[in-house]
Amino acid sequence: MTRPPSRRLVLGAATLPAALGVLGATAGPAAARTLRRPVTRAPGSDRDRALRAAISDLTTPHATCAQLTVDDGAGGDSWYGSAGYAHPAAGRPPHPGDAVRVGSVTKVFIAALVLQQWAAGRIDLDGPIGRHLPTGLLPHSFGRITAGQLLDHTSGIPHHVGLPDESTPEAVWRHRMDRWTPEELLATVTHRPPSGTGQVQEYRGVNYLLLSLLIEELTGQTYAEAVATRIARPLGLRRTYVPGADPHLRGPRIRGYLRMTDGSLRDITVQRVESSRGDGDIVSSHTDLLRFHTALFSGELLPPRAADQLFQVPSVPMTDGRPARYGRGFQRVPVNGVDIWGKTGEQYGYRTRIFTTRDLRTRMVLTYHPTRRSDSAQMAERVAAVLLGRPGSTR
After folding, report:
1. DSSP type of residue 195
2. 247 — phi, psi (to 5°)?
3. Tens of pLDDT, residues 264-295
4. How far, in Å, are 68, 98, 171, 356 from residue 287 at the CA level?
5. Is-contact 204 157, C-beta < 8 A?
6. How far apart are alpha carbons 196 and 21 in whole angstroms?
7. DSSP 3-state percent helix, strand, coil across the chain (nearest 5)
């Protein structure tokens, strides 16, 4: 891939902010702290100052803290900054090794495990999943779906029916400790057969729930054991794990908060994420995410032909008529003729954004902690404007 002439990450004005999400409730001073390895540009460059400013405003929108790493390639420029507090009451700043909930970035871990099995010849991505999953787990019409269609969200599985209404922060708080089994979750989508399978892309978390079950059948391990033994330990990801039924975060962590309708804040760090199994339940850290993402791109975790599958975007429309944008693990963000690849993730109180050029010349990891259920894009737009080098051009 030809590198853009600028050393800045060239990200699309209209597309990147939507992909990144936002930052935003300050608890005390929000001045960004920075750590950097030796860089080729002069310390305190204009970009450094602009990145620091971009993550220092934790009031627009409201967030408790943020961390950002931008890396311009192996041996090149690297910048890390943080703002706000991991534990506002104690005044402790965030650390790159703090545990965070990574939300849908979980899907990239799942995709890597499936592709490892494919590379080993244990599964055909174009073969029906019914031949691998336990009899009776799914209706016959679901068994014809392929692993590849689950990976790229073209399975045609219908919407969930019967999940709790979480349209208010109070409802989210009431249901934060709900427990769900995989069978209970699958029962909410089997009310009618799949439709448009292989013909339309529609983002569905349940696709990756099914893939987590498939991983267990193929490996003979639990989903948690597979993540630990096949990804976390080989890569030295010390803070990455599947929490299962444990609602707590282990070790040093960043606390997540949820703002109620009356304006009060509640600590939602402790929450069950079993309803997001395989879809958005993994716990990791800022440091681990950068390491994991780099390993996927560099061929360290998957052989080249398996890693290539992460980037295979189907030639079908999405439900809104736009071209498909999800590959078999990664999301594609086309920018100025260059594709940026990565994933976004959300859990209440936690947001994650990882994006990289395929040649690894620029990597970006953004973890932040908004207090609103639906956060706006001001922080991401500020970061994108800096990386674009064209402030004000992020809409």
Report:
1. -
2. -85, -5
3. 999 999 999 999 999 999 999 999 999 999 89
4. 10, 9, 33, 15
5. yes
6. 29
7. 30, 20, 50
Distance CA 191, CA 126 (A): 25
Check if the beta carbon of residue 106 is closer than 8 Å to that of residue 207.
Answer: no
pLDDT per position as a tens digit, 384-394: 677 755 433 32
How many angstroms separate the CA atoms of 22 and 86, rounded? Answer: 17
What's the CA gap between 14 and 54, in Å, rounded? 18
Helices 286-298 and 106-119, axial angle in degrees (round to 10): 30
Distance separating alpha carbons of residues 133 and 142, to the nearest angstrom: 11
DSSP three-state, residue 368: strand
CA distance 141 to 147: 14
DSSP bridge pairs for 295 = none
Two tokens at 184?
């209970």
Cβ atoms 111, 153 nearer than 8 A: no
Q: What CA–CA distance (Å, rounded) separates 318 from 32?
A: 39
Residue-wise pLDDT tens digits, 132-165: 999 999 999 999 999 999 999 999 999 999 999 9
- pLDDT of 251 reads 96
54-80 as b/e: b if 16+ CB within 10 A: bbbbbeebbbbbbbbbbbbeeeebbbb
Distances (CA, A) of 54 to 22, 283, 382: 11, 26, 5
- Cβ 27 vs Cβ 44: under 8 Å: no
Token pair of 197 as six digits: 């399978």
Largest interatomic CA distance in the chain: 63
Query: How far apart, in whole angstroms, are the C-alpha atoms of residue 181 and residue 262?
Result: 33
Contact in structure between 383 and 367 (CB atoms under 8 Å): no
Q: What is the pLDDT of residue 319?
A: 94
Using the structure block, give the residue that is written with the tokens 């950068």: 290
What pTM did the predictor assign? 0.88
Which among 144, 159, 27 has a CA at the least distance from the CA of 89?
A: 27
Provide the β-strand partners of residue 265.
Answer: 259
Decide: residue 259, CB within 10 A, 0-12 exposed, 13-18 middle, 19+ buried. middle
Q: Are 326 and 201 in contact (CB under 8 A)?
A: yes
